[in-house]
Write a structure and sequence with these properties.
- The chain is built from two helices and no strands.
- By secondary structure, it is an all-alpha fold.
- The protein has one domain (13-168).
- α1 (12-90) runs antiparallel to α2 (94-168).
- The longest helix is centred in the N-terminal third of the chain and has 79 residues, at 12-90.
- It is rod-shaped, with a radius of gyration of 36 Å.
Length: 169
């Protein structure tokens, strides 16, 4: 410890003309790098939020698919009942039977179309789930890289602070 203060006084003019612009440029570069890294963190948080939203949409789509399946079962049962009634009435009125059979054919086509839609939605949901899993893996890799970059940045900041401390000492 220097009690008598016999160290030479710091030359502020020399520091502000020579070293300060270099230090300022380096601090600006560090600030820009921190801004970029903060953007990467925000992107990771957005990806997590998107994953949660996609999981909710997946659950909603599954519920909707189940409702459609129930509708299909109901429509099939209804079509079978209508067909049984049409067969019983066929002996009485042949024209009514033809109209009833046409209605049943239309309903069966609708049921088949709904089944195709449900199948396509299930495939789409499975594809989306795989994409989400892959995105989650990529997110984990990006987080690890970001942690490594942050550690390197902290080391650079400590080295810079040590230089500043050495210059001021």
């Amino acid at each position: 410890m220097n009690i008598s203060n016999d160290a030479p006084a710091m030359n502020y003019v020399d520091y502000f003309t020579n070293q300060f612009p270099k230090d300022l440029a380096q601090m600006a570069a560090l600030r820009d790098e921190l801004t970029i890294r903060q953007g990467a963190l925000t992107a990771a948080e957005d990806a997590v939020a998107d994953r949660k939203k996609a999981a909710k949409e997946l659950e909603d789509a599954r519920k909707e698919a189940e409702a459609i399946r129930n509708d299909v079962k109901y429509d099939q049962e209804s079509a079978k009942r209508v067909l049984a009634e049409a067969v019983e009435k066929a002996q009485q009125v042949s024209n009514d039977t033809a109209a009833t059979l046409n209605q049943i054919a239309v309903r069966e086509k609708e049921v088949a179309a709904r089944e195709k839609i449900v199948t396509a939605r299930e495939r789409n949901l499975a594809d989306n789930e795989n994409e989400l899993i892959n995105a989650q893996k990529a997110l984990a890799v990006d987080r690890d890289a970001l942690r490594n970059d942050t550690a390197a940045l902290e080391a650079r900041i400590k080295a810079f602070q040590a230089k500043v401390a050495a210059l001021t000492a």
